[in-house]
Amino acid sequence: MKRFFTILITALLLTGALCVSASASSFDEAAAELSAIGVFRGTASGFQLDQAPTRAQAAIMLVRLYGAEEEAKAAYDAGELTCTFADVGETAAPYVAWLADKGLANGVSADSFGAANPCTAKAYTVFLLRALGYKDGTDFAFADAESFAAAMGLANLSLSGTFLRDHLAALTYQALGCDLKDGSTYLLDSLIKSGAIDAEAAKPITDKIETYRALQSVTAETMKGCLDTDFDMKMNVTSNVKGQSAGTPLDASESMDMSGTGNAKVILDSEKGDLQMAMTYKVTADGETLDESGYWIKDGKMYVQSGELGYVRDIPEMTEVFQATAMSDQSSAILLPYLKSATAKTSGTDTIYTLTLNNVLGSSMLDIGSLLAAEFGADFDIQISMEDSNFTYTVAKDGQLKNAAVALNADAAIAMKMNSDESEQAAFKISMKMDMNMKVKATGDAVKITYPDFSGFLEA
Fold it and tell me: Are 68 and 93 a contacting pair, CB within 8 Å?
């Protein structure tokens, strides 16, 4: 069981060190916060985040992000606007008519808007860019809309998966923290100033955006997307397993105190949108070395060395968000849907920023299932909660990041079934508390990564 813990801990360490995730997610809190300011609304069945958004729904969202909902409704009711598309229902008609009148949305034909058609991630991204003041065909080409948007702080978090209302909510939330094209302010602030959104209702989102933007601003020049840090951690893991092995029933509980040390280097190339990473660590418990491993990311591949085993696998689903972050001058907007809150306080000449996570990171973190499957030859169903975990950054007066700390609280439910033997199956319940401290050694151009020889690594 200790070996199983080690692999799980490895993945959590990687996630904790980098504070980034990229897989299928559930942005319930983002949807709820958008609903509180009148931008995102559900139905009698709730937010229906697992449904694909329609073009009509996207049109409604876009009008709200222009702060023009009341204007559109009033003009439509007064007969000043008419909807010429036969497939648009009465609910969406004022919104579609307003967008068409302003030249912001077109139909799929002369008399059809395609109202019930699924709205694609690219199409919605274009809508959001227009709301920020950008024009397709002038500022960006439609074919390049998503890469252009990433540089503005908008990243499609559905990645290669189906674009759902869940991801529409996340993209909309990001857009609120993005600067307008003219640089005057960010979108949510402009909507508040125009009176389209109530300032008090929006305060939780505004506070989050401005605190995170401040953290990014003071460290951007000194870090330049690059970090070299030593870290140490202490962790307590308790577990219960039930199942069977070779026909023998399993029913056991265990508690383990562990500690670990290591080093992590990250280089995000803002010109190439490239991610490089190197992390080595050692985990011990009761004086025994449980694992001494290394993780490297280079050219869109992850290399793992654990004991004598070395393997490599493609990770485009992970690197896409990293690359978007690397290219973005507003990367804080990309990560906003993962934050429950962001606060700042002064301590002497330092400023201490605390970022509290919602549970999106737990549900969309690094693909632990694939990592475990490669190691154990089994199928895994994993559910992880990381609600209220914190990242704390201490920033000096000159903008240098001095140190960072991670307090992760994770509860995992894991069902395992061996591929080769149905009699080998188990259900784990694991609770983990981890405190990790990171001392910054270098930032910016001073960060260098030297890679080992990967020639003997096997494809996972």
Answer: no
Rounded distance between C-alpha atoms, residue 387 and residue 356, angstroms: 8
Nearest to 106 by CA among 55, 159, 41, 34: 55
Q: Report the SS3 class of residue 37.
A: coil
For residues 380 and 389, give the distance between their C-alpha atoms in angstroms, rounded to a whole number: 24
Q: Is 245 helix (H, G, I), strand (E, B) or coil?
A: strand
pLDDT (average), residues 253-277? 83
Using DSSP, state whether 355 is helix, strand or coil: strand
**At a CB cut-off of 8 Å and minimum separation 6, what does 422 contact?**
none
Question: Exposure string (b/e) for 381-391, b if CB count within 10 Å is 16 or more?
Answer: ebebbbbebbb
Characterise 444 by phi-psi region: left (phi > 0), alpha (psi -120 to 50), beta (else). Answer: left
Q: Helix 28-36 to helix 199-223 angle, to the nearest 10 degrees? A: 130
CA distance 262 to 437: 11
CB 205 within 8 Å of CB 188: yes
Distance from C-alpha of 29 to C-alpha of 169, rounded to nearest angstrom: 9
Rounded CA separation 200/206 (Å): 9
Contact 179, 62 (CB under 8 A): no
Q: From 112, 69, 109, select the one nearest 89 (Cα to Cα).
A: 112
Using CA atoms, how far apart are residues 284 and 260, in angstroms rounded to an integer? 6
* Distance in angstroms (rounded) separating the CA atoms of residues 22 and 368: 12
Evaluate if residue 267 carries a pLDDT over 70: yes
Mean pLDDT score of the chain: 82
Cα-only R_g, the chain: 24
CA distance 208 to 211: 5
Distance CA(404)–CA(406), nearest Å, equals 7
Nearest to residue 410, comparing CAs of 284, 290, 237? 237
**For residue range 211-236, what is the model confidence (pLDDT) as tens digits?**
998 888 887 777 877 889 999 999 88
Beta pairing, strands 401-418 & 390-395: antiparallel
